[in-house]
Amino acid sequence: xxxxxxxxxxxxxxxxxxxxxxxxxxxxxxxxxxxxxxxxxxxxxxxxxxxxxxxxxxxxxxxxxxxxxxxxxxxxxxxxxxxxxxxxxxxxxxxxxxxxxxxxxxxxxxxxxxxxxxxxxxxxxxxxxxxxxxxxxxxxxxxxxxxxxxxxxxxxxxxxxxxxxxxxxxxxxxxxxxxxxxxxxxxxxxxxxxxxxxxxxxxxxxxxxxxxxxxxxxxxxxxxxxxxxxxxxxxxxxxxxxxxxxxxxxxxxxxxxxxxxxxxxxxxxxxxxxxxxxxxxxxxxxxxxxxxxxxxxxxxxxxxxxxxxxxxxxxxxxxxxxxxxxxxxxxxxxxxxxxxxxxxxxxxxxxxxxxxxxxxxxxxxxxxxxxxxxxxxxxxxxxxxxxxxxxxxxxxxxxxxxxxxxxxxxxxxxxxxxxxxxxxxxxxxxxxxxxxxxxxxxxxxxxxxxxxxxxxxxxxxxxxxxxxxxxxxxxxxxxxxxxxxxxxxxxxxxxxxxxxxxxxxxxxxxxxxxxxxxxxxxxxxxxxxxxxxxxxxxxxxxxxxxxxxxxxxxxxxxxxxxxxxxxxxxxxxxxxxxxxxxxxxxxxxxxxxxxxxxxxxxxxxxxx
Length: 608
Description:
Elements: H1 10-44, H2 46-65, H3 69-85, H4 90-105, H5 113-146, H6 151-154, H7 160-194, E1 205-209, E2 215-221, E3 231-235, E4 239-242, E5 251-255, E6 262-265, E7 275-279, E8 281-285, E9 291-292, E10 306-309, E11 315-320, E12 332-336, E13 339-342, E14 352-359, E15 370-374, E16 380-384, E17 387-391, E18 397-401, H8 402-406, E19 412-418, E20 423-427, E21 432-438, H9 441-467, H10 472-486, H11 489-501, H12 512-521, H13 533-553, H14 559-562, H15 565-570, H16 576-604
Antiparallel strand pairs: 1-2, 2-3, 3-4, 4-5, 5-6, 7-21, 8-9, 8-11, 10-20, 11-19, 12-16, 12-21, 13-20, 14-15, 14-19, 17-18
Helix pairs in contact: 1-2, 1-16, 2-16, 3-7, 4-5, 4-7, 5-7, 5-9, 5-10, 7-9, 7-16, 9-10, 9-16, 11-13
């Protein structure tokens, strides 16, 4: 799974986040007050403008402080009734049609069908819910103003802030119902779609014997189902699993003997999971075996994964901490994603061979090498047992204990090396992890729906804010523009970091001026420019341009950052620290849009 940065603890994240929030909010408030003063100064003069802005600010905050929960609840109920009158529930019928036709167009024989179905369901739910609530939010208030229906509300003892908050809560309530219903339907659709089994015929299984003729196991294959088969390996007792394929496996049990033997095949295991990973820190050795801060670049524009060269001492090394016998009593369940870059085709159906070793970071004692074969688009597993071997200097293999001899103060190193010359392994820090536990897929799916709910709240509050001072179509365009700009928030932040640190691997290609230069000169973004005075000046100017862009990008909500569908689709449990951070970010944006909308609506004097 792509995880470019470690997820911080919420307790460590919230303090700096609140400071940045207050700083950005203060700047926006000062800018808005300055604009208001300039407008009033043109109309009434500088001194009168200052007095009007000051009184307007005091009146606005007094309006916010005097909100009544009963009046807000009444206005929210009106917003819900208005939504129902506009037949908003039709979107559920649209979602049902999508589910009906999805079974035709989604390929259950894909590389990872669970990821395919989950990605479709979560993406469709997010899009439909956000679109519906946004349309409700941006057109409701302007329609009331145009028909003068708002007059019947503002002539009552109702504050403008209550009107804004009531609309937000009402439309958010409708969106919440939609998220819940779509989430339940989507969960049932995914579980039903990926569920399947296989048959194993006695004729497809072959006995495996040793030199004395004794049966040591059975091997064969399953029947074809959902466009795939599994190779089967059983022990002498008839117990085993089908080889992992398309992201899942099946447990298989042999019942009976001889030609009358039958095989019980369990359900698909591994498609719908919620793994709890224990991740480590990554470092590299170069082709000469010397420490390196990164691996080899193979020319890929996206440098998330670094590569190690095969047939050399190059290695990728993960250091895991917190490894205890209590947490891993049966050994270390290591799971890994290894990408391959080939300089020659070779036997492509066999994969690329490599090894995994464990090393004690204190004594440098190494285990014997475990052979692996890198398989694209799948998660390889390796259970490191409690008792394993180490190769001595004279070539003798000695048995050692995992926790006594290889783990020091809860730390252990895992070394990955590629054996085939001319081939490369590509890895990232999140690609190797220890499986520390298993959560509930249903609960994990519900947490992913919570991410959709966060996005819906932000979009609803944004639409209501713009509807307080813009016409419906213009408010819709403004809201979509803000959402679109917010999608580039993380990219602008990483681009600014790359520009300031000079690390082109973070975002290759440089800032806007450098990118324009590369386009004009047809220079690849992976190539370093010569450090001439002109290039240095160009980079410095880019830094000056990116500084205000980085500051401004922080005030735009990023809906993609609030989404956690990737965790569910890839089979990882969503951390509560991440959900808490998303909840705090959502609350911050909703509060800011509420305050802004209340001030805008009060400035319009709709009751006049």
